[in-house]
Amino acid sequence: MTGTPEDPHLIAEPAPPRLAVGAAVIDRDESEPRVLLIRRAHPPLQGAWSLPGGRVEPGERLADAVLREVFEESGLVVRVGPLVEVVEIIEPPFHYVILDYACERTGGALRPGDDASEVALVRSDALGNFGVTDAVLRVAMRALSLV
Length: 147
Description:
This protein is of the alpha+beta class. Helix content is 18%, strand content 41%. Strands 1, 2, 3, 4, 5, 6 and 7 form a seven-stranded mixed sheet that branches. A hairpin with a 2-residue loop joins strand 5 and strand 6 (94-108). The mean pLDDT is 91.
C-alpha cells in the first residue's frame, strides 16, 4: 500500500508479473495444417479465443508446463518445439509474461477442459474468424513455419 502526504488514500500495489507459457499447437493430420485454439473460461480475456497456456508452477520446467497446460485445456499431447515469442498480457489486476512455444500434436483426443470452455483446430486462413488478437495470429503464423 502506498500513500503520500498530499494524497492520504491508500492504493493497493499491483501484483508482480506472473510467468506463464503458451503453445501454438500445430496439427498436420489433415491436408491443411491447423492451429489449436481454446476459448478462455476465466479471466483474463474470458470468452476470447486464444492459444492454450497458463502459469508455470513452482519448480516446474517450462517444457513440462507447456505439456501440462495443453493437455489440461485440450486433451492433446504435443512435442514442444522452439520458443516463438514473449508476449505480455496486462489486464489489471492481471499481468502475465507469456513464453509462447511452437508445438506439434502427437496424440490425445480433442476436448475442452480446465480453463477452456471450447476448443477448435482451425486452419490458418480462418484464424481471423475467431477474433484472435494480433499476438495470437503472429505467434500462430510463425509457429506454422517452425514446426
